[in-house]
Amino acid sequence: MLIRVKRVDVQVSNFIQPDALDLCLECWKNLMGGSGDRDLGAKTMGGLVGNSDGYGRSADEEQQARDLRIAAATDAMIDSLSRLHMWAIYKLMGVGQVWRFDNADLLIVGPEAKKSLEEKLRRNTCTGILF
Questions:
Q1: Half-sphere exposure of residue 63: CA atoms within 13 angstroms, side-chain side
Q2: Is residue 56 part of a domain?
Q3: What average pLDDT does the chain have?
Q4: In a domain, 69, yes or no
Q5: How many other CB atoms are found less than 10 A from the CB of residue 94?
Q6: Which of 12-21, 41-50, 85-94 has the lowest average pLDDT?
């Protein structure tokens, strides 16, 4: 027997849009860490997802290609930062062997680095649409 539930009794969680800077940094961290496959141009499984010509791409492949483009753009923007800000981003994200800046305070330099990186990502054509 089916029971009718009142609309007020059903709780709907509202979607929270992820922060664009955090999304870019997560894609970059995955690229730097080597997790996940790289899109090497092979159209895998194209015929099995409904594309009869075999050259189509599945939604997963599209998402992976998008994440790789975001990660590559983020990497380029991080490389254009000053060395101190690069250090802060690498240190905050826990990527690689981080060099030392003995006189730098991560609590001060970290937010500055994120702010300058966000400004650069906003102007980038690939990542600007996320902001």
A1: 5
A2: yes
A3: 82
A4: yes
A5: 10
A6: 41-50
**pTM of the full structure:** 0.71
Task: Name the amino acid, one letter, at 13.
Answer: S
DSSP codes, 52-103: TTS----HHHHHHHHHHHHHHHHHHHHHTS-HHHHHHHHHHHT-S-----TT
Cα–Cα distance, 118 to 127 (Å, whole number): 10
Cβ–Cβ under 8 Å, residues 66 and 122 = no
Give me the number of domains the chain comprises. Answer: 1
Q: Find where tokens 């930062």 sit.
A: 81
Say which residues have a Cβ less than 8 Å from residue 55's Cβ, sequence separation at least 6.
Answer: 43, 46
Contact 77, 121 (CB under 8 A): yes
74 lies in some domain: yes
- Residue range 33-45: average pLDDT? 56
d(CA 12, CA 107): 37
Residue 95 belongs to some domain of the structure: yes
What is the maximum alpha-carbon separation in the chain? 70
